[in-house]
Write a structure and sequence with these properties.
Strand content: 15-25%
CATH superfamily of the largest domain: Aldehyde Dehydrogenase, Chain A, domain 1
Structural class: alpha/beta
Bound molecules: 2-aminohexanedioic acid
Shape: globular
CATH architecture of the largest domain: 3-Layer(aba) Sandwich
CATH topology of the largest domain: Aldehyde Dehydrogenase, Chain A, domain 1
Number of domains: 2
Oligomer: single chain
């Protein structure tokens, strides 16, 4: 075990060195399941630290860009192997840091491993294309090129997978990066940096600056030497970043909110749909962009569905994610739990039926953390705020629907469009749903979560700004196309003119 578990003072990683913040200020990071458990003390950085990190990334860029992609890939393969070796330790650290249960933090590390191997494989592809020229004795091709220094602003809910999606795509393409992890989960990104350090990534290629959005994020995303900004987080912050990046025309990739719907039709396997809903709504304590936060259930089966769902949800064991018996961990922070509690009040006032949960859990051991009971609202209408706004917690809302068409219309009635799903045995309606859901990801007879790294991840409408991450599509964020023409005719040839010269 060489990846150190974070205890005590941690640093920023700049130019291959572990350093304190220039102000010397620090903050504590505690386990959301147990406030007495100190995960680490982290630097509270600012503009000077950002300057140093961007300068280091800029300095490292020419060397990394010139390193052949298959050589870059070897380092990513090595990182993948180290992640595999340390998976269990890393998962434990991540559960302590953000609260989700061990099975899920193992999945989070596995997603980083999958991404490492996918990105490494790209080192021997990074395909461009060749195509015939319209002129004789002329060769035409298109290649991908890196852009330079990339700023990655990453969330706390997938504290290793999402930093891996972004950084590994950027690195294999030949960019250098500065990453600002969410303040709730710096240890996971520190651990990822240590993995890259051990894997032999040259100094300055991967830099970490820890601190708040205002003190670190703002100077980072507006820095003139930063060419790409990739952000995952709320739509509200994404909009601000979009405005901040516009004056310098930075390449901007935004991955934001979701209000994902499962549509359960009257011919569905209701038990299967209930399992999907439980997993999609309460996995990661509902703190996923892809969470199943709306359950649109045909009125013929909604009674049976709600009864079965309620029975399943009442049996969910909530507890410290390190405890093997626990099935759902806490909210990531007190603030997040307050948001959840506020939405539960809103739902009650709006007249939705609170079927189960709806309260903070404070008995015994649970009093040590930010636990909230898994919560179901039923008999909700599509207009209610709990049916439209992202809550990012263990709350799901059942909305009865009259028909397939009604379900699709309601599914599409929100501002977001990340993920969706349909449960049906009818192949025709399954295909119509695949076509008509306004989302970037869609599932048939499975939940709204479960994205795999080799497919594009992202959403439409206010969820994204047209880009995708992961998959090969993720390379588009971190590369620029260059079209190259090679004339070997030995004479001046004029495109569009020589080819269509008139006879006279
Ligand atoms: C997120 O919700 O922010 O499909 C990412 C999933 C995971 C990734 C989720 N593989 O739920």
């Amino acid at each position: 075990m060489t990846t150190e578990v974070a205890v005590g003072l941690q640093g920023n990683f700049i130019g291959g060195e572990w350093v304190t913040s220039s102000s010397g200020k620090t903050f504590e990071n505690r386990n959301p399941a147990d406030r007495d458990d100190l995960v680490g003390i982290f630097p509270e950085s600012g503009r000077d630290d950002v300057e140093a990190a961007v300068a280091a990334a800029r300095k490292a860029y020419p060397g990394w860009r010139a390193t052949p992609a298959p050589r870059r890939a070897e380092i990513l393969y090595a990182a993948g192997e180290i992640l595999k070796r340390d998976k269990e330790e890393l998962a434990r650290l991540m559960t302590r840091e953000m609260g989700k249960v061990l099975a899920e933090t193992r999945g989070d590390v596995q997603e980083a491993i999958d991404m490492a191997f996918l990105a490494a494989g790209e080192g021997r592809r990074l395909f461009g294309f060749t195509t015939p020229s319209e002129l004789p004795n002329k060769f035409a091709m298109c290649i991908r090129q890196p852009l330079g220094v990339c700023a990655l602003v990453t969330p706390w809910n997938f504290p290793m997978a999402i930093p891996a999606w972004k950084s590994m795509a950027a690195l294999i393409a030949g960019n250098t990066i500065v990453i600002k992890p969410a303040s709730d989960t710096p240890a996971s990104v520190v651990a990822l940096a240590r993995v890259f350090e051990e894997a032999g990534l040259p100094a300055g290629v991967f830099n970490v600056v820890i601190g708040s959005g205002g003190e670190v994020g703002d100077p980072l995303i507006t820095h003139p030497d930063v060419r790409v900004v990739s952000f995952t987080g709320s739509t509200e912050v994404g909009r601000r970043i979009s405005v901040a990046c516009a004056p310098t025309f930075k390449r901007l990739h935004l991955e934001m909110g979701g209000k994902n719907a499962i549509l359960v039709l009257e011919d569905a396997d209701v038990d299967l749909a209930v399992e999907g809903a439980v997993w999609g709504a309460f996995g990661t304590t509902g703190q996923r962009c892809t969470a199943s936060s709306r359950l649109l259930v045909h009125e013929e089966v909604v009674g049976e569905f709600v009864d079965k769902l309620t029975a399943r949800v009442r049996s969910i064991r909530v507890g410290n994610g390190l405890d093997h018996a626990a099935q759902m961990g806490p909210c990531v922070s007190e603030r997040q739990r307050e948001t959840v509690a506020r939405y539960v009040e809103i739902g009650k006032q709006e007249g939705a039926q609170l079927v189960c949960g709806g309260e903070k859990l404070t008995d015994g051991e649970l009093s040590r953390g930010w636990f909230f009971a898994p919560t179901i609202f039923s008999e909700a209408t599509p207009e209610m705020r709990i049916s439209r706004e992202e809550i990012f917690g263990p709350v799901t809302t059942v909305i009865p629907v009259e028909s397939f068409e009604d379900g699709v219309r309601i599914a599409n009635s929100v501002e977001y469009g990340l993920s969706g799903s349909v449960y049906t045995r009818d192949v025709e309606r399954a295909f119509r749903a695949m076509r008509d859901f306004e989302t970037g990801i869609f599932y048939v007879n499975s939940s709204t979560i479960g994205a795999e790294v080799h497919l594009p991840f992202g959403g439409v409408k206010n969820t994204g700004n047209g880009h995708r991450e992961a998959g090969i599509a993720g390379l588009d964020v971190f590369t620029e196309w260059k079209s190259i023409y090679v004339d070997f005719s030995g004479r001046l040839q004029k495109a569009q003119i020589d080819t269509h010269e008139s006879a006279d």
